[in-house]
Amino acid sequence: MKQKKTADELAQMTPAQLDALPYGVIELAPDGRILNYNAGEASLSGRRPDKVIGKNFFTEVAPCTAVRDFHGRFLDLIEHRAVNYEFDFLFTFDPPVTVHITMLYEGSENSVWLMVERR
Q1: What residue spans of the chain are helical by DSSP H?
Q2: Among 2, 5, 7, which residue's Cα sits nearest to residue 23?
Q3: 62: number of CA atoms within 13 Å, CB side?
Q4: Tens digits of residue pLDDT in 10-57
């Protein structure tokens, strides 16, 4: 992943700085609500930030992620507050998109950051 950031670095960035990153970035609250959604992710998914922020990522925006390999890892991060994950995932958009996910827990905001890069 290009210019990989830590969760602490992402948490300190402004929306404009997040939008300037060369990959998708999503910040999720412990209940799965989308808190931040950058321009890179909007380009990958075809969904504008103003249409997804505040919605539940797993049930309202990307229900294909409501599986153990994705949602389960998210729940593990929230529960253990110290584990990070990297994995490939197939988003079932039309057409489907394979991405590399970096999932990071951020303690000061008790949130999970997703960095999404097309494969």
Answers
A1: 7-12, 15-20, 39-45, 49-52, 73-80
A2: 2
A3: 25
A4: 999 999 999 999 999 999 999 999 999 999 999 988 899 999 999 999
Tokens of 74: 């998210």
CA 44 to CA 41: how far, in whole Å? 5
CA–CA gap between residue 32 and residue 55 (Å, rounded): 8
Q: Measured at the alpha carbon of residue 89, what is the angle toward residues 15 and 91, in degrees to the nearest 5?
A: 75
Q: What is the phi/psi pair of residue 35, to 5°?
A: -100, -40
Q: Which of 55, 77, 74 is nearest to 66 (CA)?
A: 74
Token output for 21:
């990153």
Q: Regarding predicted confidence, which is higher, 94 or 102?
A: 102
**Closest to 4 measured CA to CA, from 27, 20, 21, 19:** 21
Please state, in angstroms and rounded to a whole number, the distance separating the CA atoms of residues 35 and 37: 7
Which residues sit opposite 103 in a β-bridge? 85, 114
Of residues 63, 61, 72, the one with CA closest to residue 103: 72
- How many angstroms separate the CA atoms of 30 and 41, rounded? 20
